[in-house]
Amino acid sequence: MTQRGLSAVVLQHVPFEDLGSLRPVLEQRGFAIEFADAATATFPLPQTQVCDLLVVLGGPIGVYESEAYPFLTSEIDCIRMRLDAQKPTLGICLGAQLIAAAAGARVYPGGRGPEIGWAPIRYSAPGEPPSWFAPLLQPGINVLHWHSDTFDLPPDATRLASTDLYDNQAFTLGDFALALQFHPEVTSEGLERWYVGHAYELAKRHVSVPELRAATETHAPVLANAAQLFWNHWLDYIL
Description:
By secondary structure, the protein is an alpha/beta fold.
């Protein structure tokens, strides 16, 4: 479905963690997409409060590292204003953690260590999953996990998904915000930039790039089909 005249603002933390599979879906719907580099942006950003969709992407820093990265405090304030206005908001990985912090939850290093690699998620809310979320829960669907921090569930949030390592993998706030600790947006081609950009972390965590690439070749094409359904169904729901 094409929706003309819509706008999306994307808060980006590192260039190689981008919209991935979400970008063509937004473009097909007629979204005008504006990217803002969160680290160098001059907050507050008025466009983040008036756009139809705010997307907050991932990055390799911690929400609690505001002394080293002062922009995080302003970014969280920006997101909090958006949540208070109950406007459509999406956070992925660090973006999910920033939404959690803006909604009043604690973000901290995960006690079970890093979660890096492909694995399924399981639905963890009462009843049936929302129809828009169901494509990511189908048998054979694995998503990419790449984080070492986690967060408490914010007040009034609904947990949607968990893994064996970390309970809070996805949550919603009302019908206007979605936070995803995992990465449904990644593509095989895009991840080649991640392997370079996160080379130090991968070596430190003793993660084999060839093994991760091989797993990506298996799981990313399957995820791509599920993600396209997911993005479209969720956008239909939230807008």
